[in-house]
Amino acid sequence: MKKYLFLILLISCTAFSQKKTAKANPNLESITLGGGCYWCIEAIFENLEGVKTVVSGFSGGTTKNPSYEEVCTGKTGHAEVVKITYEKSKTNLDEILKVFFTVHDPTTLNRQGADVGTQYRSAIFYSNESQRKTALEIINELNKNKVYNNPIVTKVEPFKNFYEAEEYHQDYYEYNQNKPYCRLVIQPKLEKFEKVFKDRLKKK
């Protein structure tokens, strides 16, 4: 409970402002995050106000156009990730990362629960200096305030590539809610998110 209260406090003190960059739509920005199985992270961010799209895929490795089976071997160097595109007028990177650090364990190296391997590592793939700075500031703040019992091991790395996962991985929770993994692993994370960020849920 301590870490959730601290994250809420951080959010309430954060102004929703980010420097605009020259893009086709300056109100849109993307960040790529790895926090264990992408089915979990995707289901959560699809419910956050201000998030426009969430795409499951692979990032951080060397194998081009990897399949899910190849990534599962742990030999491609890729992590399971989600590419999140959000509207900066409705949310910002601070909030995105505070949700991220609430719904997965950033202190376990190459592991989230029963999912073990480098493909399940905790990682933030930044696209610009502003994203890198924000990520490091939040990690330092969480470590300084001892929000977790152990140090955060999340890797903060420059974005190099993103390969979209196969179609059946997209919106996985939405179409498979009754499957054991969804009920036992994803649903508890989703409930935690809905409790902590209840005022930031996307209106349906």
From TrEMBL:
The active site is at residue 37. GO terms for molecular function: peptide-methionine (S)-S-oxide reductase activity. It is an enzyme of class 1 (oxidoreductase). Its EC number is 1.8.4.11. Residues 31-182 form the Peptide methionine sulphoxide reductase MsrA domain. The keyword tRNA processing does not apply. Residues 1-17 form the signal peptide. SUPFAM superfamilies: Peptide methionine sulfoxide reductase (SSF55068). It catalyses: [thioredoxin]-disulfide + L-methionine + H2O = L-methionine (S)-S-oxide + [thioredoxin]-dithiol; L-methionyl-[protein] + [thioredoxin]-disulfide + H2O = L-methionyl-(S)-S-oxide-[protein] + [thioredoxin]-dithiol. Keywords: Oxidoreductase, Signal. The keyword Transmembrane helix does not apply. Gene3D superfamilies: Peptide methionine sulphoxide reductase MsrA (3.30.1060.10). InterPro entries: Met_Sox_Rdtase_MsrA_dom, Met_Sox_Rdtase_MsrA_sf. NCBIfam families: msrA. Belongs to the MsrA Met sulfoxide reductase family. PANTHER family: PEPTIDE METHIONINE SULFOXIDE REDUCTASE (PTHR43774), PEPTIDE METHIONINE SULFOXIDE REDUCTASE MSRA 2 (PTHR43774:SF1). Has an important function as a repair enzyme for proteins that have been inactivated by oxidation. Catalyzes the reversible oxidation-reduction of methionine sulfoxide in proteins to methionine. This is Peptide methionine sulfoxide reductase MsrA. It comes from Flavobacterium flavipallidum.
